[in-house]
Each structure stands twice: as structure tokens, then as C-alpha cells.
Amino acid sequence: MQKLVQQRLKKLEAMPKLIGPVSVKVSDVPTGTWRYRRPVIRHGDCVKCGICAEYCPCGVIEKTEGKMVIDYTYCKGCGICTTECPKKAIDFVLESECNKEGD
Amino acid sequence: MPELDLVSKGMTTCQGCAMELIARAALEVLGPKTITMTPPSCSAIITGNGDETGWGIPCVQTVLMSLPAFASGVSEALKIQGKNDVKVMGYAGDGGTFDIGFQALSGAIERGHKAIYICCNNEAYMNTGGQRSSATTIGATTKTTPTGKKEVSKNIDFMLLHTPLAYQATASVGDIRDFKRKVAKAAEKDGPCFIHVMSPCPSGWKYPTDQTIAIAKKAIRSGMWLLWERENGKITINRKPADFDAIPEYLHSQKRFSRLDDETTEKIIAEARTRYQTLLKLSELELN
To answer: Can you list the domains of chain B with their CATH numbers?
Structure first.
């Protein structure tokens, strides 16, 4: 049995090294276009506990330079962060109103 | 192009999908030295189609009935190559675990391969449009049970109590820190590990997308979902259900239970109570 394994391993070593499976691209769909309401953090009330980042299904909330930042390119606007925030410091604003204000 | 995460950000799962959160949390703990596999299910969205993939780690798209068999093969190959630091993670839904993949799962557990099997339970075949599975709660409306399911759901955790699992646990997205702790524990074991995670589905259970975590928390609080683990022949209950009378509140926050009558509600509450009492009795025993 061991001999057979050794033989097989030698055969494998002779083969060209596989870099990865058939996939060559990383899924990169701009899912932010699905959103009809967007979460906006009120930085004055935010205590930076990171619970929103922990529960964000898309992993788009990150702590950078001492404040929580949402990546709106991928945020689908599910609103989990707005309900889970213990300080209720995240507003759920209609996307149409955001465009009017120009941000 | 984003930075290469372990799970990519631009994924086409539904708004408020808990399955994506579970994948992210699991890989945060397991790290980049992991090989994962998914059956055709919602989790196959992460594995992707064509030349695209969402995982930043090696992944295999398996057939629906034999994900644990694939996992055992990969695990044995790694053992022969001496790569003991690489972990194998199976990531399936409830259809691929409770119904179709069950015989392969029991076989893989019996052979004792080192792998972590995560079952993300959304209580129906959600990827194909929400048909009933054996994990669906009694009384729930699905595409194939439009007047409410008549049968009680299968309790897979109790079924697997008699199998030689190195580690068995139930977890929920409502308590993601507890889930991460359980994955970390499973990663250290040298044997088959099974983690059963509750994953509410906004499109199938019919509730607003922002309520995903809130509903999972309600289920833990009311005792509809029990958090416990089995290790070295001992069952530990992680959290006591606070109030079984909160079950109607959990049920009525979802539209799939809109056809529920009082008799079925009573039945669900009684069943949840019995399940907890059985678990309490089992936790006093020495199991093997």
C-alpha cells in the first residue's frame, strides 16, 4: 500500500503545478446598485463597538482611521446594521433622498 | 478589483442573507489554509459559475448527495501528503444534509475523517424556490405545502448523538461570537465535526430583510433553537431558553406561519419544551 502511494506521489510531482481550480476570476458584482435604502452612520452617536461590522452579511463595514466606514459599492442595503446597532446610530435613508442632497 | 478577501464582497446572494455571514465568520476563524466544498445549493452562489468564484481559497463544487464523501477524499489525500495544517470545510444547506446527503454524511462520520461539516439550516429548499424539506417546521407554508406542513421536522442533532463525532454543536447567526468559538474548537479536533447553524432566509420565511439577526435572536430566546455542544461524551447547554411563551411572537414575525392555527401553535410549543427537557436529561448522562 505504502509503495503504491509513493509511486502515485512521484507521478503527481512530475505533473505541472496547478495554480488553482478552474476559476480564474473573483466574483465582483457591484451589488450596491440593488439598494433602494442606504445606511448612513451618525458619527457623533457612534461608539465604534463594531457590532455592525460583525453582523454585516456582506462584510462591507470596516473600521478605518478610528471610525466605521461603509463601502457603498457593495452594500446591498439589507438594513441589518440599522436594527443591530445598540446605539441606533445608523439611519436608513431612501436612496432617492440621498441623490437629491448630492452625497 | 477588490482586495482578495477569503470571501469576496461582490456576491449575488439575497439582501440580508445569513448564509453569506456564516461563510465569512467561519473563514475568519479557519484562515486561508482551508479547502472548502459546496453542494448545489444557495452556498453554490459563493463557489460561482463559469470562471468566477467568490471564495479566496480552493473550493470544490460537488454533487448534492455526496459532499461528505468528497470531504473524506480530500481529507485523506491531505493526510497522505502530510499536510496536517490544512482544514477541510464542507458547507451545505439543510436539503443536502437532512434529506439527500444524509447517507454520505453518516458514512463519512463513521469512517472518522478529519473534516468540519457546517450545515446552514434555512428550513426548506430555498435555492429552487422554497420547497419543503424535512427540516421545515410544522405549520410552515412552502411552495409544496401551501396550507402548512403537516409533519414534525426531523431532529438531526439527536439523530447524530449516536455517531462517533469528535465534536458536535448547534449554533445560530443570532450569536455569531458563539458560532466563531465553536468553529475554532472544531478546527483543533482530529476527527469529524458537525456544526448545525440556524440561518433565517428573508425571501423564504417572508420577513423584512433587516430582521434576519433579530429573528435568530428571538428563536434562541424562545427555545425554538437550542444552543449546545457535545464533546468527549458530554453535552453542554450553552444558553437556557428564557421563555417558551415567546414562541408565538417568533412565529408571527414571519409570513410563512400566517396560516397557523392555535392547535398547531400549541403543538410547536409543546414540542420545543419536550426537546429542551430531553436535552436536559441527556446533559446529565455520559454519552459516547
So the answer is: 18-283 (3.40.50.970)
> Do B15 and A76 count as a contact with CB atoms less than 8 A apart?
yes
Asked if the Cβ–Cβ distance from B15 to A71 is below 8 Å, we say no
**Where do the structural domains in chain A lie, given as residue ranges?**
29-101
> Which ipTM did the prediction report?
0.86
| B18 to A57: CB separation less than 8 angstroms, yes or no | yes
Fold observed for domain A29-101? Alpha-Beta Plaits (3.30.70)
Percent of chain B with pLDDT over 70: 98
Q: If you average pLDDT over residues B60-80, what whole number do you get?
A: 92
Other Cβ atoms less than 10 A from the Cβ of A97: the count is 10
C-alpha angle B246/B247/B251, rounded to 5°?
125
SS3 content of chain B, % helix, strand, coil (to 5): 45, 20, 40
Contacts of A34 in chain B (CB under 8 A): 15
